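REVIEWER CHECKLIST
Item 1: Sequence provided? yes
Item 2: Single chain? yes
Item 3: Sequence as submitted:
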Amino acid sequence: MPATEFAGTVYTSQFALTKSVDPPSIAAGAAADVAVPDTNVKAGDLVQIATIPPALDVGLVVQGIHSVAAGTFSLRLVNRTAGAIDAAAANWTFVVLRR
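Item 4: Structure as written out by the authors:
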């Protein structure tokens, strides 16, 4: 198939970053946005989760990344259990794609 059929966003660079993320206590059935600061992130970057900590509490669901701005992005976690979860800080690895 011609390449024009798959035309889309061209990313000029990519890099990985590992950050310590310490989610707040999340009530049963609630969601929380966790700000993840990093000076290398710029507005317009696409941030994806590369690795989730193996010790992530059972019941916490990763809903995704949003609100990418200069120096920060937000990670949304949802508690699908009947009780509050206060997860410990852990290292997460993210991949950043830049246009």
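Item 5: Key structural point noted by reviewer: The beta strands are 13-21, 31-37, 46-51, 60-69, 72-79, 90-98.
Item 6: Recommendation: ____
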